[in-house]
Amino acid sequence: MEGTRRFTAFIRNLTEQKQLEARLLEGERQFAHLSRLRILGELASGIAHELNQPLNAISVLSSLAEMTDDPAELKQALLKIGTFTDRAGELIKHFRNLSSANEQARSPSNINELIQRAVQFLDNEITHHGVSLEFRLAPDLPELEIVPIEIEQITLNLVQNALEAMADQSTPCICITTEHNSENLTVSVTNSGAVELDDNIFEAFKTTKSNGLGIGLTVCRSNIENHGGRIWLEPQPDNTTFRFSLPLSL
Amino acid sequence: MNILIVDDHAMVRETIISLLRAATDWEIVSFESGQDFVSNWDGAGDCVLLDARMPIVSGWDVLHHLQRRDAAIPVILMSGHLDDVNDTNTTYPNLKAFLAKPFSGKTLINTIHEHIT
Fold it and tell me: What are the chain A neighbours of B55 within 8 Å (beta carbons)?
């Protein structure tokens, strides 16, 4: 009709699509949590070992505090008890964060510190298997806005896999390297085991372990991709390297 | 009496030294690893407090080393792992006792008295 404007509108109900996306996201989060719990189960003995050290120091110091007549020595013992209690508390807090099912927030973090903190939980395994561990960490790494426990989980996974890959070696060694250029930060975990692997190893339920679920590396890749990065495998005749890179501007 | 402590955890080593110096008149010598002990021990001493789980040279390796040297020094093995108590992978005849971490200062001193003095 003359003088009349007509508009055509299309309305599409996205509720179902949004619900599906939310369910997929929740499934992914639960998958990552399951993977973390599995690693933590394997690390239980190492965590107990790490907790035992400050507990032992506290126990010995409390005996000293009870026995001594010297006020200065008593004060010193009590101060140390406080310090070691804090250390034990930090370990428990860290363990609780790793096992948490809650969604974790991003925060500015130093990758070198996260790697060293994660490997601390494997100290006992590393010692017990006589593995030589070398860190080549770039001292000038910029902080990245990341989810710290996801990076720790990736480190734990890669180092744990490396330990298992070298189980039969007489002189096993692991080298962890960090480096960066103007665009990316790269972390490499190299072990002296040479296992036949290809990039399919990142697919869910692919595993070379008889008792493995095959979800560890899948979660690693998902965590890295959520940060805009990538993870890949570099097998060599006499060693294996897993490398992941993260963009500096996340 | 001369007590030797071999433990790679500084906090454990130092607290044991503080306790024994405060509570006894024993001489204390410490080693920060199994490797340090194997390389630097001069053969003197009345008792070794030895951590079982240390990197590179473990407490078990130290026991083998003592046996190869035909050493007679008594050893008290310390560990937080229950499996270590039942570990029969040593035939060192002077392994006197096993102390499960965490232990109190009193337990430590009593164990030394019981087996060594």
Answer: 126-127, 130
List the structure tokens of A137: 């960490």
In angstroms, what CA-CA distances link A27 with A21, A101, A104, A176, A223? 10, 12, 15, 31, 14
pLDDT (0 to 100) of residue B7:
94
Q: For position A211, what pLDDT does the model report?
A: 52
- pLDDT for the residue numbered B14: 92
Indicate the pTM of the whole model: 0.65
Cα(A111)–Cα(A146) distance, rounded to whole angstroms? Answer: 9
Sole residue written with tokens 């955890």: B9
CB contact under 8 A, B104 and A62: yes
CA–CA distance, A144 with A138 (Å, rounded to integer): 14
Q: Is B86 on the interface with A (CB under 8 A)?
A: no
Residues B18, A70: C-beta atoms closer than 8 Å: no
Number of other residues whose CB lies within 10 A of the CB of residue A132: 13
Contact yes or no for B48/B91 (Cβ under 8 A)? no
Q: Could you report the per-residue pLDDT of B17-53, keeping only the tens digit for each?
A: 999 999 999 999 999 999 999 999 999 999 999 999 8
Residues of chain A where predicted confidence (pLDDT) is lower than 50 = none
Task: Indicate whether this complex's ipTM tops 0.95.
Answer: no
Placement of tokens 């010598």 in the chain: B29
The dihedral through the CA atoms of B95, A50, A189, A181 has a sign that is negative
